[in-house]
Design brief:
The protein is of the alpha/beta class and 562 residues long. It is 38% helix and 20% strand.
């Protein structure tokens, strides 16, 4: 039953499979990288110390794998191929039974009765139909295996079912929306890459779901290909106005759309056109409720809704999405990780993961820049250590993350980058820390309070090489295209956010014109929870094959080198 990996030989495979559904990957084994590529399709990285990484299989991960075409036999075969020891029989049973839960319930259109919930397994239908969260969403029973579903509850039903552990396969189809011709303009400057074509095709074949690609790998191109294939009015939801204008530029450059076809619906403009770019902020209030603007957008006959950076969806947008399940929905992201545990809502309301490609695979093809990651550990002064020790727990992280001892390290890294002609981003969470850094580095500071026109001016000056260092808050984490940036220095972050770490590295991954590598530095206060949170943030990137080199601040201060 145990078949070692292709590179494993007599020594056995690199994977230790345990009955609690954890997988221990031996990084020193010659087959580790190939094994990592296979198990990442159905398991999530939990811990990533130097020699052994711990993965865990979860129901959601297995259901995503099933929706992407992997069945229980494929998953078990991968485990058997790479396992160092015979697999626990109980684990094989658990994996098979978990995967088999996906699709036992099906939502589909019935020619006579409209939307229905149908089951080949009647006891499952009886179980869920009696659940308090499901019963109000269902109509009359048609036959022992079929119950009417109220159309307005299609999304909420899927949410409720996944929480019960019975994810429904939604085969009910989608309205076409008002037609609007969109053609791609491929030429010597722009042509779809193979993985972009595959991603778009996988989405169009399913009608809803998420495409996961590394930052800089061209997720916008996938969306444009999907838009061209579907050929209907399209709503694109983006993180901010700057991102909306980058989308507009891409659409005008690479599709048949004209300026009059594209509308911007933001705090500054209220245009609804065949392709409308709307910010998440405009559709929700500060209190987390939907605004009347959402009513205006929802009234349009869209054939496709695109969710840029889908892992960031605010709760009100989830609620809105639950009501528009008849529209095709495409989620774009570099990582499906959500620190609030709402990945299940993305699965049920946007759709399963339809396409994914490892970051290192795209790097090997030359489509994103190679990158090195370094954690620079700073020893606090006695005064800083005492301030940290005496701080209340909610303030301890801030005390460590904003320690002034970090400033000299950032200055040294920036000086080395400037000498090497490397455009540099300094990224942080706390505005007062960023203001101090801006003064010491003689660099402009860009935050959420910076007006849109000023943001665009600063980004343009950075791209043109007029500004060698730009200090930015988390407003630059997402959807900002700065291909010239080749060094990023992270001074503080959002606690242990894996998605933020991935997005910050992503600011550097656009390929460089001279093929140079990118360098990502994380400056961390030693012996504080800043160090602990840094380790958590690094987990997603470790899963993608990025290793962090750890150096002492004295090394940087003594020999600053990019």
């Amino acid at each position: 039953m145990n078949q070692p990996g292709a590179a494993g030989g007599a020594a056995g495979g690199p994977l230790i499979v345990q009955s609690d559904q954890t997988l221990l990957l031996d990084l020193d084994h010659p087959g580790a990288e190939e094994c990592r590529g296979e198990i990442a399709a159905f398991a999530e990285l939990e811990r990533s110390p130097e020699h052994v990484h711990t993965y865990r299989m979860t129901p959601l991960g297995l259901w995503n794998a099933r929706a992407a075409g992997l069945d229980a036999a494929s998953v078990c075969s991968s485990l058997q191929r790479w396992s160092r020891f015979p697999l626990p029989e109980s684990l094989l049973v658990q994996v098979s039974e978990t995967i088999a839960r996906y699709g036992r319930l099906v939502i589909e259109d019935d020619a006579q009765h409209g939307l229905v919930l149908r089951a080949g397994d009647r006891p499952v239908l009886e179980e869920v139909a009696r659940a308090k969260t499901v019963a109000p969403l269902l109509g009359p029973r048609i036959d022992p295996a079929t119950i009417v579903v109220y159309r307005e509850h299609r999304g909420r039903l899927k949410q409720a079912l996944i929480k019960l552990g019975w994810p429904a396969e939604d085969r009910a189809g989608y309205v076409d929306g008002s037609p609007h011709h969109i053609a791609l303009r491929e030429d010597e400057r722009f042509t779809l890459r193979d993985y972009q074509r595959q991603a778009a095709a996988a989405f169009v074949a399913s009608g809803s779901g998420v495409v996961v690609l590394p930052c800089g790998a061209g997720k916008t191109a996938v969306a444009m290909a999907a838009m061209a294939s579907i050929g209907s009015r399209t709503l694109v939801l983006v993180t901010n106005t700057v991102a909306a204008r980058q989308w507009r530029a891409e659409l005008l450059a690479h599709t048949s759309l004209t300026d009059g076809d594209i509308g911007e619906y933001s705090g500054e403009r209220k245009e609804i056109r065949p392709v409308t770019l709307a910010t998440y902020q405009i559709v929700i209030t500060k209190r987390g409720r939907l605004t009347p603007h959402m009513d205006a957008l929802s009234a349009e006959d869209w054939g496709l809704i695109v969710y840029d950076e889908v892992h960031l969806l605010p709760a009100p947008v989830f609620r809105m999405t639950a009501d528009i399940q008849s529209r095709r929905r495409l989620g774009l992201t570099a990582t499906l990780v959500r620190e609030d545990g709402k990945e299940g809502d993305v699965f049920s309301l946007i759709g399963p993961k339809r396409f994914d490609v490892p970051w290192r695979d795209v790097e090997a093809q030359g489509y994103i820049a190679p990158a090195s990651c370094t954690e620079v550990r700073v020893t606090l002064t006695d005064e800083e250590r005492m301030s940290y020790a005496l701080a209340d727990p909610p303030e301890q992280y801030r005390a460590g993350a904003t320690a002034r001892s970090k400033l000299a390290v950032v200055e040294a890294l920036c000086a080395a980058a400037r000498a090497a002609g490397e455009p540099t981003l300094v990224i942080g969470q706390f505005l007062d820390q960023l203001e101090v850094l801006g003064e010491r580095l003689s660099a402009p500071v860009l935050t959420g309070a910076t007006p849109t026109l000023e943001r665009e001016r600063l980004f343009a000056a950075f791209r043109a090489g007029e500004i060698p260092v730009l200090v930015v808050s988390k407003v630059a984490n997402f959807s900002i295209d700065l291909p010239e940036a080749s060094v990023a220095i992270q001074v503080s972050g959002t606690f242990g956010s894996r998605q933020e770490e991935a997005q910050r590295l992503g600011r550097l991954l656009r390929p460089k014109h001279d093929g140079r590598a990118a360098h990502f530095y994380s400056v961390v206060a030693r012996d504080t929870n800043d160090q602990e949170f840094a380790a958590r943030r690094q987990r997603f990137l470790a899963e993608q094959g990025y290793a962090y080199r750890i150096v002492d601040a004295e090394h940087v201060l003594g020999e600053p080198a990019v």
